[in-house]
């Protein structure tokens, strides 16, 4: 995956596609069934988008974030799209809520990526691909940067 990401802070969504259902243990959260479909994981990278997303993309790493358990279990390349906005305001929670409030989407796995906030989950499932990237609320940005493989 050749991709040039900004080195500065920002928030992002990783879009993963699962072709076949799998059962996975997600760290201490337990074991869950993941249906085939599209998964959207929102995160913030205040230390820099490039570093954080690069670490998500590396294979054979220690499983650190909840999303790593999912992405490492999907046939390479696991990440179909990366959406991001730059800026030092954390958008991950707003973004997760916006994604989860769409028709046909739902939050999955309580506590996924949201150990440090009050969100139910930062993982949002959709049985089919979303038509276009969702812009995080409360931003004046009209555009989300998108990488597609
Ligand atoms: Zn949150």
Structure description:
This protein is an alpha+beta fold and 149 residues long. It has one domain. It has three helices and eight strands. It has a six-stranded antiparallel sheet with strand order 6-7-4-1-5-8. Strands 2-3 form a two-stranded antiparallel ribbon. The radius of gyration is 14 Å and the shape is globular. The model has no long low-confidence stretch (mean pLDDT 88). Bound molecules: zinc ion. The site of zinc ion (ZN) has 7 residues, from helix 3. Zinc ion binds next to helix 3.
Offer a quick outline of the entry.
By secondary structure, this protein is of the alpha+beta class.
Structure annotation, total helices: 3
What proportion strand?
25-35%
Number of strands: 8
Bound molecules: zinc ion
Secondary structure: elements and pairs:
Elements: E1 10-18, E2 22-26, E3 30-34, E4 37-45, H1 49-57, H2 66-71, E5 79-86, H3 92-100, E6 106-107, E7 123-126, E8 145-148
The structure holds zinc ion (ZN).
């Amino acid at each position: 995956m050749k991709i040039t990401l900004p080195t500065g802070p920002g928030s992002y969504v990783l879009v993963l596609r699962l072709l076949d259902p799998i059962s996975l243990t997600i760290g201490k959260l337990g074991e869950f069934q993941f249906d085939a479909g599209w998964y959207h994981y929102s995160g913030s990278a205040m230390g820099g988008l490039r570093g954080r997303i690069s670490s998500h993309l590396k294979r054979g790493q220690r499983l650190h974030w909840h999303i790593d358990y999912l992405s490492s279990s999907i046939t390479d390349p696991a990440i179909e799209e990366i959406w991001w906005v730059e800026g030092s305001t954390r958008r991950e929670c707003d973004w997760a809520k916006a994604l989860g409030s769409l028709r046909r989407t739902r939050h999955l796995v309580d506590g996924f990526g949201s150990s440090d906030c009050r969100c139910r989950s930062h993982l949002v499932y959709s049985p089919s691909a979303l038509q276009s990237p969702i812009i995080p609320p409360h931003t004046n940005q009209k555009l989300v940067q998108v990488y597609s493989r």
